[in-house]
Specification:
Elements: H1 14-24, H2 32-49, E1 62-70, E2 75-79, E3 90-97, E4 106-113, H3 124-140, E5 144-148, E6 166-169, E7 179-185, H4 186-191, E8 197-204, E9 207-215, H5 226-245, E10 248-252, E11 256-257, H6 259-266, E12 270-273, E13 278-279, H7 283-290, H8 299-302, H9 304-307, E14 315-317, H10 320-331, H11 366-371, E15 373-374, E16 380-381, E17 391-393, E18 401-408, E19 411-418, E20 423-427, E21 439-443, E22 447-448, H12 450-464, E23 471-474, E24 479-480, H13 484-488, H14 491-504, E25 509-513, E26 518-520, H15 521-525, E27 536-541, E28 545-547, H16 551-558, H17 561-571, H18 573-584, H19 589-615, H20 620-625, E29 631-633, H21 635-662, H22 668-679, H23 687-696, H24 698-735
Parallel strand pairs: 4-5, 5-10, 10-12, 11-13, 12-14, 19-23, 22-24, 23-25, 25-27, 26-28, 27-29
Antiparallel strand pairs: 1-2, 1-3, 3-4, 6-7, 7-9, 8-9, 15-16, 17-18, 18-19, 20-21
Helix pairs in contact: 2-10, 3-5, 5-6, 12-14, 16-19, 17-18, 17-19, 18-19, 21-22, 21-23, 21-24
Amino acid sequence: DESRTLEPYAASDKLQTKRANTRRIGTTYAYDFLTLMEMSLLRRWEEHLGENMASSIPTNVFEAKELLLDRETMELKEGTQVTGTNDIAMVAWRCTMKTPEYPEGREIVLIANDITLQSGSFGVNEDDFFYKASELARKEGLPRIFISANSGARIGLYEDLKPKFKAAWNNPEEPDKGFEYLYLSETDYNELPEGAVVAEKKEVDGETRYALQAIVGDEKVHGIGVENLRGSGMIAGETSRAYDEVFTLSYVTGRSVGIGAYLNRLGQRTIQMQNGPMILTGYSALNKLLGRDVYSSQDQLGGPQIMYPNGVTHEVVTNDREGVDHIIDWLSYVPKTAEDTAPVVESKDPVSRPVAFKPTKTPYDPRNMLQGVENENGEWTAGFFDKGSFQETLGGWGKSVIVGRGKLGGVPVGCVAVETRLVDRRIPADPANPASSETIEQQAGQVWFPDSAFKTAQAIEDFGRGENLPLIIFANWRGFSGGTRDMYNEVLKFGAKIVDALRKYEQPIFIYIPPAGELRGGAWVVVDPTINPEHMEMYADVESRGGILEPPGICEVKFREGDQVKTMQRLDPELSGLCERLEADPDNQELRSAIKSREDKLKPIYLNIAHEFADLHDRAGRMKAKGVIRDALNWESSREFFHWRIRRRVQELKWAKDMQKVDPSLSVEEATKKVQAVLGVANVEDDKAMVAALDGGVDKLEKAKEDVRQAAIKAQIEKLQAELTTNSKELETASA
């Protein structure tokens, strides 16, 4: 027999060990996310091109340049280091991605915790690095993506001191009597670097002691305590600023603790992997605080079952590949920089096609209205947005409102729609309180509750900050829930936040009351275009309604039973004849009985007549006549109408604001009229013609902007000269 020698398996190198460690805790090594992003981009290109593979996928669809921090200058620079040799638990890259929206390439800043180093904790060096990388994204207006897997602010002790300190016992013979202070011997104290401890010199029984009052540590242990908390505060503030100025998105791939959890919330938009809890304190520490084993996992505190229903998490995914796909999908709605408008891609779904799914007066799933639906026979009923483009977010929170992003003929749009069905709000039991139990609250459709009002305001903020999306609100609310519990739960506060969010919005907003929809009372007030007239427009479907009260409610006040009886007497010949006969014979009880019988018989139909009369006051014709809506629309053709209207308003506003920048004295309305005058379109109400003119008139508009700039400078110089002349004359007069 031949003998065979088996070679031993090669020992795992450092990089393989890091990857194995991250897989063991259910996440992915930070550097491997670059490969996941490249693979996701390739899949997106294949999906975009479909069978048309003649249009080949671009080369180098994804490139990443690592960012390194120079500790001397504290400036970031692009560089290279061997994967896995980083010495801090934070890494970042400046990435260039070629996407269907930007085939020439777009840039993002990608920041990630390296959980293989000190559990991904935040020390001073990590905080400085994170701050600089986020600041880079903010200064250049680039989207900032944060991949979160960490253990919060780093903790530590001055390890060199552990074998040296001594205890001053109250009774050396009985240690259980306690101690007075900790101290160092004179020899040990003198061996420490200057300033390593704060101590008081004492002479005890001929021994020189240095009683410890504070332990500072030396330069080797910088980053073990409050200095890390200060750094956490610094990056918390930076993330808050970043959300205001650029697109921010966090992907929670693993446990995120303390400042790690706060960074995700401060960046607002969050995708959470199913085994990536966001917590403030670990469950073991809470059990010790409570004195008993109450919690058994981190998921009970901050898993998706907590963070998705409470609105911290926008989307939940099952693995990192899916998570990266969601990041790439979200970026497809985001402009190249914070100064740009949302990208437009040619759509395979014709913009001219009618909207086939039609809302009804009976409850329906509004997602079908937005994205379309396939019936049992496999037949497709098209919705408002391009097929397959609508992406819902915050779906677990405030379920009486639906928010997300869709594409309308290739134009990215933020969307708010209204649930018409009854939904449940689940409030979990708290394991720390044995008396608590899970409660289910039912919420009616077409009503704003505290959570859904907050969700509406939050979504509007997200759409406007960094995403720069035009916004369409399918307004179908009967009002706000004003019961005792909802008033206590701050429905008034969150309703006001909707107004705040709309007032500050700087992209076009379209309020559209859909067919069979209604907008009433306070719900109308918080979305009325006068909140932000430069950016908001309101439309109503020809089959929609708008008013203060619904017909039954207003009839109880303004068309009561007495008015309905008068209408019967006027319109019903039989009743009218009986009343005339009673006037001639007022004591005839048979006539009175006959009149009452006839009125009772007619009451139901005349109640309907009263309701119809009141309803006629709420229709689109009156809304338009009173100037509270811009136009009444037909649902079937609304998709094409809004496609051209949105494209026109986005470009028109962009040029108007560009002119405002060079001449701040112009209002948006004045600047818009200048844009229209430059383009010279015969009918400025023709949105399609205006889009064609805007697309083809870039050179003319650039020249007009330069003319406006020079005229503004000239006017400013003349104003300063006039002021100088006036001041000179006043000085001469004073001297005389």
